[in-house]
Amino acid sequence: MAGPKVIFQIQRKTEVSDGMGGQTTVWTDVENIKGTLTRVEGWEKFIGDSTRVSTTYILMIKYKNGLNITTIDRIRREEKLYEIIAEHEDVALKHRFLQITLRKIE
Fold first, then answer.
1. Which CATH number covers residue 51?
2. Is the separation of the CB atoms in 83 and 56 below 8 Å?
3. With a threshold of 0.90, does the pTM exceed it?
4. Tens digit of each residue's pLDDT (9 = 90 or more) over 39-56
5. How many domains does the chain have?
6. Are 97 and 89 in contact (CB under 8 A)?
7. Considering the domain boundaries, does residue 1 fall inside one?
8. Domain housing 50
9. Max CA pair span of the chain
10. Contact criterion met (CB below 8 Å) for 9 and 29
11. Distance of alpha carbon 76 from its chain centroid, rounded?
């Protein structure tokens, strides 16, 4: 079941100088999008003394011509971060909705 429409931020990774000859990774908000997030799959594994959890989501947003989202970007909603694991798809090729597959970053 899809949740309510909420605002997400597309973030893009950039490398900036750390002032000592090195590089630091910075995530910058590129664009705000509004959509619904639906959980489609999840699993939990016990490895040693720790638990690993992975959850996959589908983010549905309105189609926006020229929207540039790739798997090197990520999505943020408040304090929650999601990696993009599949390029966005134009649902039914009708230019009405885009479907983005995400995995929650733990």
1. 2.40.10.270
2. no
3. no
4. 887 656 556 666 566 788
5. 1
6. no
7. no
8. 6-104
9. 50
10. yes
11. 6
